[in-house]
Write a structure and sequence with these properties.
Elements: H1 2-7, H2 29-61, H3 69-87, H4 106-144, H5 147-158, H6 161-166, H7 173-189, H8 195-212, H9 220-235, H10 240-261, H11 263-274, H12 283-310, H13 328-340, H14 344-352, H15 358-381, H16 390-409, H17 417-426, E1 433-435, H18 439-444, E2 454-455, E3 461-462, E4 470-471, H19 472-481, E5 487-490, H20 496-507, E6 512-522, E7 525-534
Parallel strand pairs: 1-2, 1-5
Antiparallel strand pairs: 3-4, 5-7, 6-7
């Protein structure tokens, strides 16, 4: 080993390693100086990590807009659940079918924050989860590699568009990312322990992650594979017990939860996740968006994986790994597993031909790829900072992309403040409201209205005047003819064809009049909220 160091070569897995017992090394002023230097490095590392947290928080909090449809829906359902728990208020069953997670978990937590601090409070809750995710990512990467790699991994993850966006977005995604990061940290932290210790702590966290948002089920195998892989360094073939026990416990827990929750949770799981309706988006367009949102970080992660597989650096190995240098097959499995996780959500959405929530789901895979991205940056910079410019260049590029992309995505939906104010002035007792995207106004006007008073242009079953129930366009036409709706709002964004037909009917109906048109803008262009109300009797 001494000869290898003198020649300046890297240690390889086949090279013999000379074991030096710590007690045999005499204490010297140099060793004391080294200890002091190490302490300074640790505190410098902690200071830089705090700086990463500060940048992440500031860039997330700078985003401004009214509630998005998903935010409004989840928080609204949470308020209904709280009302049911404390006052026995009934909760409409149809709302659960729209939710891709248990309505008793995040919606209730988010609504509690919303009750105390408003929408900003619910979004800050997401920021806390995302900061916790970054902290857990740092810790698990430090266990796999070292502090330098961990800091780089946390720094690049903290500025991606999905991290910044979800840090100010009141949905399931932030807590699910936190739980996935927590489960991964647990399986890495307990690598040297028996299988029961890993399962005892990781299985409940994975189960909770899937219950919070069903899409987390896609990443459960990744966490299990990490558990087996890191456990192999200590337990050998016995690490396979983790690969058997952990999924068994998670499956049993989820089956029990579904049995307790009844068929509605199983139906929601199918309609929102496992049997989701196919869309019409082109896979090539989805691929281009994936590359735009996560391509640079994935490229750095792939570079890190290739270099890590090609040659191991002794300085990258932390105390977790029992061997002096992990074998090449082990390094290949780790690199391919972490980088491959980024492909899961994009591949599934390309299969479904749907763009919905892709910008958020990209962040799930980037969480697992971040450690390899950290390796890539440290390899480019060099062991003794021979090329220090590469690290800041990559980080600044990711920062610029993350800032611009998160800002762009935060303006995908229009600001609904003026619409809500107008609708508030038109609310009547026991009124009925047809609004194309009714989640935001329903959320903001929840104190003045009830769930059954709202209808969207997505679906209707109208049985007014004791006639046979009518669905689709016929149902809307009959309801308008009967004067069922007190206020009608079109924005022609999703159901444009239906909106145009119903607007023609309203224009020729003596029962309704056009109240106003409110212009709005978003990243897709401009549009108009067209608001119709019942005509005043002569």
């Amino acid at each position: 080993m001494t000869k290898a160091l003198e020649n300046g070569t890297d240690l390889d897995e086949e090279a013999p390693v000379e074991i030096i017992v710590a007690e045999d090394v005499p204490t010297s002023p140099e060793s004391a100086g080294t200890a002091t230097s190490s302490a300074h490095k640790i505190w410098l590392n902690r200071g830089l990590l705090l700086g990463v947290f500060a940048v992440q928080a500031v860039l997330s909090l700078r985003l401004r807009n009214t509630a998005f449809e998903d935010e409004a829906l989840y928080l609204y359902v949470g308020h209904l659940q709280i009302g049911h728990l404390f006052h026995g208020t009934p909760v409409p069953d149809f709302l659960s079918s729209y939710i891709s997670g248990s309505p008793m978990l995040y919606p209730v937590l988010g609504a509690a924050a919303d009750t105390a601090f408003g929408l900003a409070g619910a979004r800050v809750l997401s920021l806390l989860f995302m900061l916790g995710t970054t902290a857990l990512l740092y810790q698990l990467t430090r266990l796999l590699f070292n502090r330098r790699v961990a800091l780089c991994a946390a720094a690049v993850f903290a500025v991606t568009q999905s991290t910044l966006f979800l840090g100010n977005f009141a949905t399931f995604d932030a807590p699910v990312l936190f739980l996935l990061a927590l489960a991964t940290w647990i399986v890495v932290r307990t690598a040297s322990r028996p299988a029961w210790a890993t399962c005892l702590f990781a299985a409940p966290v994975l189960t909770l992650a899937v219950a919070v948002k069903y899409v987390a089920l896609i990443y459960v195998p990744v966490v299990i594979a990490v558990a087996v892989l890191v456990g192999f360094s200590y337990r050998g073939a016995r690490a396979l017990l983790r690969g058997l026990a952990l999924p068994t416990l998670v499956t049993a827990a989820l089956a029990g939860a579904l049995a307790v929750g009844g068929g509605r949770y199983l139906g929601a799981l199918r309609t929102t996740t496992t049997e989701r309706a196919f869309g019409h988006d082109r896979p090539m367009d989805l691929l281009l968006d994936c590359l735009r949102w996560g391509g640079l970080m994935l490229a750095v992660a792939l570079l890190g994986a290739v270099l890590y597989i090609w040659r191991a650096h002794r300085g990258e190995v932390h105390g977790l790994i029992n061997a002096a240098t992990p074998g090449r097959w082990w390094r290949a499995c780790l690199g391919l597993l972490l980088c491959g996780a980024t492909l899961l959500a994009p591949a599934y959405q390309m299969y479904l031909h749907t763009h919905v929530s892709l910008h958020k789901h990209i962040g799930y895979g980037l969480l697992f790829a971040a450690p390899m991205a950290g390796v890539g940056i440290t390899r480019l910079v060099g062991t003794h900072f021979r090329f220090p410019q590469f690290g800041p260049l990559i980080w600044v590029a990711l920062l610029a992309l993350g800032m611009s992309q998160s800002q762009e995505l935060y303006r995908v939906w229009p600001n609904s403040a003026e619409l809500v104010a107008t609708l508030k002035s038109q609310v009547v007792t026991d009124g009925h409201y047809l609004v194309e995207a009714n989640s935001p106004p329903r959320y903001y006007l929840r104190e003045q209205t009830q769930p059954q008073q709202w209808t969207s242009t997505y679906a209707i079953t109208y049985d007014g005047n004791k006639s046979a129930p009518l669905a689709g366009e016929a149902g809307y036409r009959k309801a308008i003819a009967d004067g069922y709706f007190d206020v009608i709002v079109f924005d022609r964004t999703v159901t444009k064809e239906l909106d145009n037909k119903l607007a023609e009917q309203l224009a020729s109906s003596p029962s309704y009049r056009l109240l106003t048109k409110l212009p709005f803008t978003n990243t897709r262009g401009s549009g108009v909220y067209e608001i119709w109300v019942k005509a005043t009797p002569p």
